[in-house]
């Protein structure tokens, strides 16, 4: 059967989901559940495998990896460097390249462009989003990639990121076989984010599942995710959508698109704006409601990356970028829970200790 | 910055308004701040309960505070032995009522627990039977009050009393009936509190549990999970809605264009289906028109059954809305669905053990809460309605005998003073001379009127003396909404602020023009879309809730009747702001956030 080298989120069939990697699978699932993800496609693991097999076999690199002692830093770095170089320099096979570019052109048309649609190019490894392997972010994300050549070269950069010293070492130390790591690459329309952030469908401080925690700042969400800005922090009640707590920060910088130069740049935020809340009450409510829907879709607490598109109004502006299972609290064994008193004992307790009744 | 400990003024330093000199004599000696006890009294923190008693008291009316607060107290200290709380001390100062909860010495709290468990436990275990019995007792008290009549003394003792060898005179019965009426009022208040504090205790238990397992849970969520949907307190308004719909379906709507209730009733009587509607109207009156637009504590309260223009006004409004195709029903199905959804979602997030506890506590809270909501109708509205009506009967009778000029004059005397008046009347009747009262009482009444009017020119203080560091008495927190934060905001309250904070009593964010209402009789000034700002609302104001977009009050907690009714009607509300009704002026544009508990002045008034 002819392998599929690229697959749109909306088109992926159940049996094809594995070839999309963790992120891609999640995006396909969300897209097909009519959640508001920007459209895009995945360069499938089949493409990766075809490319890598070709390369590694030709250069005997699988053997070198097998022999490698990860404690030997210089050997590790050397091999890593060699593999990555090979990847970046090797041309993608014509049939694979054509498949990818056809998809890119289709994506451009979907958004009313003939070519040159700005996209994000992101790694989507197959082991990355396993709930118990939180080495997320060990692979890469490239923003505001424009044009066919750029798209292809950044796809290769994502592939190459699987072979950083750290990634190789991680796999070796955790006995993850090289053959099991396949990568998909997500190519997705860039959101013109005016505000973006991360939402967790529980309170990360205490695991309380009746809350939704939102962190947000101006511009692209990368600044929140990467920690280069201290974002506003909001805690919402998930049942009645009231704001429980908020902490507004001085959001000094923002990452914004620089279309003329086909890149994103960091700018300083106007001091007045920096200390204002970046989300309105209405926005907090619909972000929370959508997050709750996403959690329901997946059946477990989620860690969601999202953005508000400057080119849209109200709820329509909400764009879902990524959602993956929350890993910390969901895995905690319920510790010896506090024993709560019931019946009359409980009543007495509440009367004598009204601190718990104090606002 | 001085580090002077923040405190409120001492009542001993809080002088009375000009023209009110001598006011202390209008009230019982034990209810005013006495010089000899200055040291002890200044040690206690008093807060003003303008939620229940927003206006200056006439001497007779002050009886309602006496009976109510004393009966509340006894159940804490002598019946159920609430471990951390005894009663609530109270004083009248410059005409307003101030409360001071009496905490139990911490060392003694533990020791009270076994008695509490036994006594309160008995009531919780037998709640429904005891409550059924309560309804019978209250109905009996109401019937006994209805049976009291005050008639002028006859020219002659009835010949039949001679033939029957009675050996008594009508004054004997007159005085007995008066004492009986007062005693029945006292009995009413005994019943009012029979279950109330236990109901609040069960609610607090559930509330506290939610705050522990869902840290940061909005108070509103807890209230919504417990609150009843079809509650007797809403029946009067529901009856009006039914009558409005009936009128429209019977083609009687045009009669409701009449401004006057009697003209409208006359018009209906002439219509083909009028008889059917009038029957329904009569039926609705008993007991549901025993409903006051005030709160039942004042002799000046107007009850629907005696002022049919009040329910008629609301009815007229409902008919108009129906004709426009608007929905007037309370969204009971939606409310019930919402309550169930909220409960299920919170419960789902708990593990099995915690969920069982959650369900147990919620279950008890829901068993007891109907009483918390309903007693208000049976006592403050119905029973007190009959009580005031009977006292007016007496006052009218004595007025006709020349003792005073107006029906409302009797209320300037304390209850024991009226006994003297009755003896004056009976005595002079027996002796055969004119009563002394008609010659002297009016001057005293007029003197007292001036004092009361002078006292009413000043609003009450929010509180006196040093507030406690932390407010711990449970009922203070729950019912009156007095929390440590609330006290702090009162202390800062001298600064005029365009931002006010209160309790997030009922969610919703709205903007609109404020209308300050200081008396229920001003309610018809409210225009569609305005925001009602007042010291305190009453459940019977509910029919205006269709017109307005939010309410703001000075005092009141989450579980005050006003808050409960607003939630039920889906009307945004902020309670317990401290002084919104004096800081905001009619015509100001304000923003009310019922989910956050904030009120903001958006537009001041343009200076004329």
Molecular structure report:
- The complex is a heterodimer of chains A (359) and B (608).
- By secondary structure, chain A is of the alpha+beta class.
- Chain A has 2 domains: 6-189, ATP-grasp fold, A domain (Dna Ligase, domain 1), CATH 3.30.1490.20; 193-325, ATP-grasp fold, B domain (D-amino Acid Aminotransferase, Chain A, domain 1, 2-Layer Sandwich), CATH 3.30.470.
- Helix content of chain A is 36%, strand content 23%.
- Chain A is built from 11 helices and 13 strands.
- Chain A has helices spanning 21-32, 45-59, 61-67, 73-89, 94-110, 148-161, 165-173, 222-226, 271-274, 281-298, 343-352, and strands at residues 6-8, 40-43, 119-125, 141-145, 183-189, 193-200, 211-218, 232-237, 243-247, 253-258, 263-268, 302-309, 318-325.
- A 6-stranded antiparallel beta sheet of chain A has the order 9-8-7-6-12-13. A 5-stranded antiparallel beta sheet of chain A has the order 1-2-5-3-4.
- In chain A, a hairpin with a 4-residue loop joins strand 10 and strand 11.
- In chain A, helix 4 packs antiparallel against helix 6.
- The termini of chain A are far apart.
- The relative contact order of chain A is 0.12.
- Mean pLDDT of chain A is 86; it is low at 129-138.
- In chain B, strand 2 and strand 3 form a beta hairpin.
- In chain B, helix 2 packs across helix 6 (170-192) and helix 7 (196-213) packs antiparallel against helix 14 (352-400).
- Among the domains of chain B are: 126-197 and 378-449; 234-330, no CATH class; 497-603, Phosphohistidine domain (Glucose Oxidase, domain 1), CATH 3.50.30.
- The radius of gyration of chain B is 25 Å and the shape is globular.
- Chain B is α+β, with helices and mostly antiparallel strands and 608 residues long.
- Chain B has 20 helices and 12 strands.
- The model of chain B has no long low-confidence stretch (mean pLDDT 90).
- At the A-B interface, strand 9 and helix 11 of A face helix 3, helix 7, helix 8, helix 13 and helix 14 of B.
């Amino acid at each position: 059967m002819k392998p599929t080298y690229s697959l749109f989120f909306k088109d992926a069939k159940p049996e094809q989901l594995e070839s999309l990697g963790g992120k891609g699978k999640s995006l396909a699932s969300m897209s097909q559940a009519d959640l508001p993800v920007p459209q895009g496609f995945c360069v499938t693991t089949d493409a990766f495998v075809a490319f890598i097999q070709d390369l590694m076999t030709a250069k005997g690199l699988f053997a070198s990896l097998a022999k490698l002692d990860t404690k030997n830093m210089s050997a590790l770095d050397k091999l890593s460097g060699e593999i990555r170089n090979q990847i970046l320099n090797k041309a993608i096979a014509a049939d694979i390249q054509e498949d990818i570019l056809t998809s890119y052109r289709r994506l451009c048309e979907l958004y009313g462009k003939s070519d040159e649609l700005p996209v994000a190019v992101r790694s989507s490894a197959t082991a990355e989003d396993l709930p118990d392997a939180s080495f997320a972010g060990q692979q890469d994300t490239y923003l505001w990639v424009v044009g066919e050549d750029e798209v292809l070269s950044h796809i290769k950069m994502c592939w190459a990121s699987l072979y950083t010293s750290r990634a190789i070492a991680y796999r070796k130390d955790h006995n993850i076989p090289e053959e099991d790591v396949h990568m998909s690459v997500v190519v997705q329309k860039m959101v013109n984010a005016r505000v973006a952030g991360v939402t967790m469908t529980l309170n990360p401080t205490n695991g309380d599942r009746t809350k939704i925690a939102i962190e947000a700042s101006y511009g692209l969400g990368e600044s929140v995710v990467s920690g280069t800005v201290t974002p506003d922090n909001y805690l919402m009640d998930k049942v009645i959508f009231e704001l429980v707590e908020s902490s507004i920060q001085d959001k000094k910088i923002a990452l914004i698109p620089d279309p003329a130069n086909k890149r994103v740049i960091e700018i300083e935020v106007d001091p007045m704006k920096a200390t204002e809340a970046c989300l309105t009450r209405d926005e907090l409510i619909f972000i929370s409601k959508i997050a709750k829907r996403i959690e329901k879709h997946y059946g477990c607490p989620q860690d969601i990356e999202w953005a508000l598109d400057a080119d849209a109004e109200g709820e329509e502006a909400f764009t879902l970028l990524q959602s993956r299972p929350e890993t910390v609290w969901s895995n905690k064994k319920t510790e010896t829970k506090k024993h709560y008193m019931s019946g009359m004992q409980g009543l007495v307790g509440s009367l004598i200790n009204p601190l718990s009744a104090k606002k | 910055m001085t580090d002077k400990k923040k405190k409120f003024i001492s009542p001993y330093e809080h002088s009375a308004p000009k023209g009110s000199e001598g006011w202390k004599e209008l009230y019982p000696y034990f209810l005013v701040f006495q010089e000899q006890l200055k040291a002890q009294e200044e040690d206690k923190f008093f807060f003003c309960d303008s939620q229940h008693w927003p206006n200056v008291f006439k001497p007779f009316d002050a009886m309602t505070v006496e009976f109510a607060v004393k009966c509340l107290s006894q159940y804490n200290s002598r019946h159920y032995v609430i471990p951390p709380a005894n009663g609530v001390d109270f004083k009248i100062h410059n005409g307003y009522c101030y409360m001071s909860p009496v905490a139990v010495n911490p060392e003694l709290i533990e020791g009270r627990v076994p008695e509490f468990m036994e006594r309160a436990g008995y009531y919780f275990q037998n709640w429904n039977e005891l409550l059924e019995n309560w309804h019978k007792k209250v109905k009996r008290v109401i019937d006994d009050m209805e049976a009291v009549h005050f008639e002028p003394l006859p020219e002659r003792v009835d010949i039949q009393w001679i033939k029957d060898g009675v050996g008594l005179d009508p004054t004997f019965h007159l005085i007995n009936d008066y004492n009986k009426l007062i005693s029945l009022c006292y009995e009413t208040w005994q019943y009012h509190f029979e279950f109330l504090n236990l109901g609040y205790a069960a609610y607090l238990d559930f509330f506290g549990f939610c705050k522990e397992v869902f840290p940061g849970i909005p108070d509103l969520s807890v209230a919504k999970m417990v609150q009843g949907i079809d509650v007797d307190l809403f029946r009067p308004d529901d009856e009006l809605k039914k009558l409005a719909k009936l009128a429209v379906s019977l083609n009687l709507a045009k009669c409701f264009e009449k401004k006057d209730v009697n003209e409208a009733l006359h018009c209906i009587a002439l219509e083909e289906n009028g008889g059917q509607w009038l029957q329904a109207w009569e039926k609705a009156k008993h007991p549901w028109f025993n409903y006051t637009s005030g709160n039942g504590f004042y002799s000046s309260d107007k009850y629907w059954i005696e002022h049919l223009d009040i329910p008629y006004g609301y009815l007229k409004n409902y008919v108009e809305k129906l004709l426009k195709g608007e929905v007037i029903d309370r969204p009971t199905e939606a409310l019930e669905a919402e309550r169930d959804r909220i409960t299920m979602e919170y419960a789902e997030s708990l593990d099995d053990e915690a969920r069982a506890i959650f369900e147990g506590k919620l279950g008890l809270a829901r068993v007891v809460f109907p009483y918390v909501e309903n007693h208000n109708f049976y006592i403050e509205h119905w029973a007190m309605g009959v009580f005031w009506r009977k006292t007016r009967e007496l006052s009218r009778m004595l007025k006709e005998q020349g003792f005073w000029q107006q029906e409302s004059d009797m209320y300037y005397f304390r209850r024991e003073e009226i006994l003297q008046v009755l003896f004056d009347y009976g005595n002079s009747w027996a002796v055969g001379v004119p009563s002394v009262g008609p010659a002297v009482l009016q001057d005293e009444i007029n003197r007292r009127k001036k004092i009361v009017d002078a006292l009413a020119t000043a609003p009450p203080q929010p509180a006196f003396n040093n507030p406690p560091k932390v407010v711990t008495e449970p009922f203070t927190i729950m019912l009156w909404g007095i929390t440590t934060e609330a006290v702090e905001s009162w202390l800062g309250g001298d600064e005029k602020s365009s931002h006010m904070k209160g309790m997030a009593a009922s969610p919703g964010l709205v903007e609109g023009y404020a209308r300050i209402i200081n008396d229920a009789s001003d309610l018809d000034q409210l225009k569609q879309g305005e925001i009602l700002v007042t010291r305190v609302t009453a459940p019977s104001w509910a029919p205006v809730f269709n017109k307005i977009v939010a309410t703001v009050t000075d005092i009141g907690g989450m579980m005050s009747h006003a808050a409960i009714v607003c939630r039920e009607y889906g009307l945004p509300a902020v309670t317990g702001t401290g002084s919104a009704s004096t800081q905001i002026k009619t015509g100001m544009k304000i923003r009310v956030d019922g989910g956050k508990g904030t009120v903001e002045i958006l537009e001041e008034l343009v200076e004329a």
